[in-house]
Task: structure prediction
Amino acid sequence: MSKVTIIGAGFVGSTAALLIAQKGIADVVLIDVAEGIARGKALDMQQMRAIAPSATGVTGAGDYADTAGSDLVVITAGIARKPGMLREELVAINSGVVTKVITQALAASPDALIMCVTNPLDVMTALAQKKSGLEPARVFGMGGVLDSARFVASIAAETGAALTDIEALVIGAHGEGMVPLACEARVAGRPLREVASTSQLESIVEHTVHGGAEIVALLQTGSAYFAPGAAIARMVAACLTDSDEVMSVCAWLDGEFGLRDLYLNVPVRLGRAGVREVVEIDISQAERAALSASAASVTAQLVEAGLR
Result:
């Protein structure tokens, strides 16, 4: 049975752990600096199996020795950006967190793949690769799957179409620099632009780009975790089953889409070795220009963080 370690037992990490175990994808080790939280949530999930049986379970750990032999390590640890906090402050704090946990995790599981979820995602994924020393294909980030899910949900809300009838991808930076591929989106096989009006398209893109912020504003005391947790579980499954499914992942670019030397969300295929292939789909000139602008914003952040 495959083994996955999730670092950070907050809402995102614990939701991902539950979904991975419930789907029978892998055994999960949940670890957190607050040992009691990891162990307590894992115990609750284990007791849940008596009501909702699953082939795999979740173990809470307080020591990285318990994570040894993991096939994949998911980093959700870190803090979210708070009102009034500068991006530089967030980068500084979470850089320290990611550096520490990746060193400890790889000491226990040197052959593991690394999935970064900590924000700012594109920068933290680059940092994780640099600190790990792993080849770039073995380090990637979760962002595009979540953004694409928000795109699909926004299309469904505006058009009334079934979620299962919608094909849509978001690429680019995980944040306001994301690029929803409206020209390539399909609803029951038809181009989105034939199904939605101009005003609907504008609303769809607006809700996609600001979907996370809408949730934060509504919750007031936190951010999204169900959809991010599901996105993590989907990516873990794709890795461990050598799935050929194309999904948007924060991956290293070395000339693809005319971009290089940075991590950015693009369509890829995931497998046991990590990013198997970056899939260069055809996109419009306007979308390509938006992607280049998104890449430029990430590059600027990398320079500020001392990673370029």
